[in-house]
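Batch 3, record 17
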Amino acid sequence: MAEKDHIYLDYNATALIRPEVIELMADVMREGGNPSSVHAFGRNAKARLEGARAAIVEAINCRPQMVIFTSGGTEANNMAVFSSNRTRLITTNAEHDSLRASSEKFDGKVDIVPVDKNGLVDLNVLEELLKNDGENTIVSILYANNETGVLQDIEAISSITRAADALLHIDAIQAFGKVPLNFMELNVDMMSISSHKIGGPQGVGALIAREKLPVKSIIVGGGQEHGRRGGTENIAGIAGFGLAASMVPDSLEKMKTLRAWRNEIEHELKNHTPDVMLLGQGAKRLPNVSNIYMPDVISETQVMNFDLNGICISAGSACSSGKVKTSHVGLAMLGDEKIASCTIRMSLGWASAHRDIDAFIKAWKKIYDKKHA
Amino acid sequence: MTKNMLKLPVYMDYQATTPMDPRVLEAMMPYFKEKYGNPHSVEHVFGWEAEAAVEIARKQVAGIIGASEEKEIIFTSGATESNNLALKGIAFAQHPAKNHIITVKTEHECVLASSRALEKMGFDVTYLDVDHAGLIDLAELENAITEKTSLVSVMVVNNEIGVIQDITNIGKICRKNGVIFHTDAAQAVGKIPLDVDAMNIDVMSISGHKIYGPKGIGAIYIRMGTSILPLFDGGGQEQGIRSGTLAPAQCVGLGKACAIALDQMVQDNQHIRTLSSRLLEKLKSNLNNVRLNGSDSDRFPGNLNLTFDGIKSDLLVADLKHVAISTGSACSSAKQKSSYVLAALGLDKKKIDASIRIGIGRMTTEEEVDYAAEHIIACARNLL
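Prediction for the assembled complex:
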């Protein structure tokens, strides 16, 4: 099988699913049952559902009623923005595609806060924008950027939004499992999380929303999830998500090693050529990701060459349905299309080994040297 | 299988959810284990493999409903999402030129909830009545269509009573009047033959967990050229109609479930019909207060909705410790709401509260049917 020979360094696109999660999901799928049924099979499925909810509650410090399971992060982000009943949206120019698309469809005023060269939100601009109309505004911010790993100062942002009576939603999909995540301490109103970025299955996510908010999925039906999201729950997937969430402490432990390895990569590349540029290096970042600019080699060419060397990385986010586009995140930070079009993202995860790092460094140097011989 | 191998409790609630076919689970496992990858990662081999598997699954789903183009199949998180997408997506796409949709009083809760949501936004909705058999009147449907009508939504097999609507002729009427025809086929796919072309269906909702596949996956068939707006936006996956990372294992599971169902539909039906007749026969010959709800002839035999005159069905269900059945749809059973479907058939409150739904499926055995019959009869006699 081809993939056995490949080195997977694209955890921010999707993490490898943990073997324990697969085992549990297979068991749950064999059990059957619809959690809305009142008989023994239904009660068992319901127990699986609530067990997973408890694991999420434990992992991110919130209350059970705040957890609304969805089909994934995209649905959660859409739900947060569209059902908030607010008439103005403030977001940034370095968001995930799901939020960018939502903001284009938003029925109301949309204001964009720019990010600086380190990818950080300009808090003064945010504060200024919130001087008027704060109580009608929802602010939606990507906590950890999916392409660069740059972490926003959410506590500073939430104190600004609180003072202005604005709602704050954060997309914590990439942050979950990579940095400690505490819903209550961050003092936000809503937060999106996703299963397949933390070693759980694809097709599952959740919106964490304070109980009093009117948020409701656009998907209505049998009144599941306290009437906030219809449809028979994906029990096996949700159980898998719950187990992956309960393993987050292990993931966080592993992040210490991954941070050292990531720094090793960046150090090695810098030593090889001073022309390398590391996006977001000046800010607090996720420990597992590096967004690397290689002069004069466009992203797509780099990715193809890494693939020929048996290494899976990506040019940016995995979403753009078949096309490799210039990263809007790189563009927002640097304002330079030429640089933004020559960056790649390398992201590590729970199953990464040191030999993967060595292979990456070797391949990067090879691709660079070939171009700059 | 001999009697002493009977495993308790006996599962007879196939309309709420079906057990997963072990072959489906087996097909899914590699996509959890070694063939992981984000199918939208176009840049490396992991992504390609996941994408190839999703495309095979798409073909399998297209195959079971006679869709000519694979791209007419869009994966969703389940039939509830598909139904929401069909009703809202089509109503929005044709608004403001058209602002009226038509559906039926006995549709699934999520179709009715979507219709009510549209009404709140200012759309007009006609809810068609059904007769005592649970069937709509085609003339009434045709009369309800106006030049403002964008969509007709009528389900194939009813989830509570198993009645099958005359889909082909409903489709014909819609086609003739230039109205889009959507059908919720969650309970029908794999159980009765479906052909979107022969039946004039423009949009169809499909569920995984009602056809021995996984929960949390479904699909929507959208005929080429039908305009529909997405429910949510993002990375532009599924031709922009349904954003969000696809779950390849889930797609593979739905595809496999469709392929198996297509392959053994005749065999499954034979099995289900035999067991269903056997159960009904036993109940009727031992109890004189049993009546089958909904049409005798236009029905899927795996669904027996029965009224036990003079008995409170929630007590019957509770007494049946080792037989898992329900008083109605799973969505409403948890909330203890009485069935609006039976009410639409003309049953009074007393009769509705005396009704249960028994589901028979691919994995049901003769021993299970006999066990269930014996215990239902005993409990029913006790409660009389």
